[in-house]
Specification:
alpha+beta; Nucleoside Triphosphate Pyrophosphohydrolase; four-stranded mixed β-sheet; three-stranded antiparallel β-sheet; 7 strands; NUDIX_hydrolase-like_dom_sf; NUDIX_hydrolase_dom; hydrolase activity; Nudix_hydrolase
Length: about 150
């Protein structure tokens, strides 16, 4: 007898945070998959959270910054490898405005967090396919405006 496990698609969120110099906040992944590559702050939405609440929590947990405003931009379907298993996800991208003194603290599953000028962003430096696709859409669609 074969056991079949059905999982509902999980929702993941990613933040696109620009500073006043039009630099994008990126993180270096501290864990697999794609350990050591660039990523955007974000993660899985917890039960009972909205997308905006989840992205604010993940940004705080990974960088120490507080999200003041999160505006939904777009979503992309994805297959994410979790504990060796392919999991279908819906990756939601938010343009976020943060508050605070701008000091970054790499925490949780982030090795380091820093800003990169928009003109120097190379999608191929990001380890996850969905992030590369999301960045290309964000940068080519003129979606990077100040909140």
């Amino acid at each position: 007898m074969r056991l079949r496990i059905l999982l509902q698609s999980l929702r993941r969120h990613r933040s696109l945070i620009l500073n006043e110099r039009q630099e994008l906040l990126v993180c270096r992944r501290a864990k697999e998959p794609a350990k050591g590559t660039l990523d955007l702050p974000g993660g899985f939405i917890d039960m009972g959270e909205t997308g905006e609440e989840g992205v604010a929590r993940e940004v705080r947990e990974e960088t120490g910054l507080e999200v003041e405003q999160a505006s939904y931009l777009f979503s992309l379907p994805n297959i994410y490898i979790y504990s060796g298993f392919p999991v279908h996800t819906l990756d939601m991208f938010y343009l976020c405005k943060v508050t605070g003194d701008g000091r970054l603290s790499a925490m949780d599953d982030v090795d380091e967090a820093f800003f990169i000028p928009i003109g120097q962003i190379r999608a191929e430096d990001f380890g996850l396919d969905s992030i590369r696709k999301g960045l290309k859409k964000f940068l080519s669609g003129g979606l990077f405006v100040n909140l």
